[in-house]
Amino acid sequence: MTQTEILWKYQESEMELDRLQKELESTPERQKLRKLRRILQEQTEKLEAHRNGIKEKEAELENGMQKLEALLKEYDLEQDDLNIMMEDEECTAEELTESRRSMEKLLEKVNALRKSLTECQSWIAKTAEAIKETYAKGAKTKRDYEAAKAVVETEKMEHKPIIDKAQREVDMIAAQLSPDLLKRYKTIKKKHPNPVARVTDNRCSGCGMSLPMNTIKKFSTGTAIIECENCARILCCEKPGE
Length: 242
Ligand SMILES: [Zn+2]
Prior knowledge:
By secondary structure, the chain is mainly alpha-helical. It folds into 2 domains: 3-174, Helix Hairpins (Orthogonal Bundle), CATH 1.10.287; 179-236, no CATH class. 76% of the residues lie in helices and 4% in strands. A 3-stranded mixed beta sheet has the order 2-1-3. Helix 1 (3-25) runs antiparallel to helix 3 and helix 2 (28-87) packs antiparallel against helix 3. The longest helix has 82 residues, at 93-174. The chain is elongated and about 130 Å long. The termini are close together. Bound molecules: zinc ion. Zinc ion binds next to loops.
């Protein structure tokens, strides 16, 4: 068997190994596992966002409480002033009205602030509830994930002898190839999944281009390794192995 023919067999064995590995990686249980992993990831991100949101709102709440305290103090002082003014006979009606108006404005501010603080508190409570829910869901996802993982491990164990056998076949054929040729094959493989192409009707079956006459001639007479001038795949005779 020529090196090119061995290389063809090598390519076939590699494709078979690849097919087996892909088959194992795409079982329904593997897909389920991947999906569950995504869901877990999303739940973790959600929790993180909720926690950060609560931190921000708590700071906002703290700040608002301090403002409220200051406003209430201010209101008390205005109230004291008004009481003094009311007992003061020198005080005009305009001055009293002015003082009352200023207190009303303060009260409006207090009420608006109270409202926003209440909203803030209920947002925190609602988000804390959402965190609890996400935790509960997360625990279930985690259980499902562990179960799927166990099945996937079993599948892997069951497939291992088949894949190992295919890998041994690849290694065995590789041992019959010259290292230089194997290296060349691997370089071409970076560009083409099938680095070896058959010659069919004087065409490269890899890219479909017809081969020049001198290439065909070289090809049919010698045992040299010939590449397609167009796609650089290594060319192999029409019926390899025969
Ligand atoms: Zn080609």
